[in-house]
């Protein structure tokens, strides 16, 4: 009997050790994603109204996106129980991220890039949620978003099991990273109704106004007006924040986070961009509208 108890406790300790190692690996992956390619804090932080390159209250929301179709305010996604997501279950957080549905059933509107986040793998979603849970709770009330356009009833059917492509398949894995980093959300032209014109995927041309002035998204396709004549090193440097002449790019691209993308992931991203169909800048302004 005594021997059986010893075996039981040894098994229990081993299982706890495995669970601890799994949790640790999950947090490491979540921290990496959040501080690099996913870059949630780029939108979910309060911005200095005079200098949007400076921010505070990381992940506590408050950034305003004031556009003709909406006045959207990024919510507090820290684990604060009253003003954040501290009372949400992991399942509810995952559904909000990948399906755009809050626990009360309401639909999350733009600019949250739900159509791209639907591609987040189950494993990476769990890692992101683990990192959100590990953040300090910040009590910060933000105003509700206002939309002047009808929101969709949903963004598609419930997301089933999703697995990330193997990192050995650099183009497919690079596309996966571009999806969860929602690169094409900004680097694809939009129609007058605000919809992405995916016929010209990656052609750039979106205009962003802010405290920094005006910035225009670059053509990411291998066209003459895009990245055709750029080296891999130049593309990597640009993603991390500086153009070929060394000048630092303007917001709203998340350079402060993208600079942390690993060399392996950066290589995959570049392989994917190289594989895109060449498009003229802005789709020649969407074929002259």
UniProtKB/TrEMBL annotation:
Which Gene3D superfamilies did the record assign?
Answer: Cytochrome c-like domain (1.10.760.10)
Question: Which UniProt keyword terms apply here?
Answer: Heme, Iron, Metal-binding, Signal
Q: Which residues form the Cytochrome c domain?
A: 25-136, 169-277
Q: Name one Pfam family in it.
A: Cytochrom_C
Point out the signal peptide segment: 1-21
The record, for InterPro entries, names: Cyt_c-like_dom, Cyt_c-like_dom_sf, Cytochrome_c-type_DH
Q: What is this protein called?
A: Fructose dehydrogenase cytochrome subunit
What organism does the UniProt record list as the source? Cupriavidus pampae
The record lists the lineage as:
Bacteria, Pseudomonadati, Pseudomonadota, Betaproteobacteria, Burkholderiales
Gene name? fdhC
